[in-house]
Design a protein that fits this description.
Elements (H helix, E strand, L loop, with lengths): L14 E3 L6 E2 L3 H20 L3 H8 L3 H9 L6 H11 L24 H17 L5
Antiparallel strand pairs: 1-2
Length: 134
């Protein structure tokens, strides 16, 4: 595949822990950006109380494409993101160059404290349910 095989996987397949679009992601920056776009889209739709059908009509983006972006099933292209931003009147593309870097130089979008706490609770609950081997 030209440019490598990274696009062979869906963005949500780069989740290391947690639930899309609030999961801890693999270090691939593109997957982290796709997650941030999906999260921003979901939050904008919720704030504006707009359905995927209504947004599809307003943006001229197919409803299934919107659903696929939200689910992390596709790599959203520039035309899609620009059309959705125009219809919503909100920025969806993250300022990923301003994200803090970890000790390996990988950038990750900081999550609100409420989301981090919820993710920590979900991870702890999964660990408790996991069978323990002695």
């Amino acid at each position: 595949m030209p440019g490598g095989t990274r696009r062979g996987k869906k963005p949500r397949e780069y989740v290391d822990d947690g639930v899309w679009p609030y999961a801890v992601m693999d270090e691939l920056l593109g997957a982290r950006v796709a997650q941030a776009v999906a999260r921003a889209l979901a939050e904008a739709m919720e704030r504006q109380k707009i359905s995927a059908n209504a947004l599809a009509q307003a943006s001229d983006v197919n409803r299934q494409v919107i659903a696929n972006v939200l689910a992390g099933a596709v790599w959203p292209d520039l035309l899609t993101v620009a059309s959705l931003e125009g219809a919503l009147g909100e920025r969806l593309w993250p300022d990923h160059l301003s994200w803090p870097q970890d000790e390996n130089g990988n950038r990750a979008q900081p999550l609100p404290e409420k989301i981090r706490r919820q993710r920590d609770v979900e991870t702890a609950e999964r660990e408790e349910r996991r069978p323990h081997t002695s």
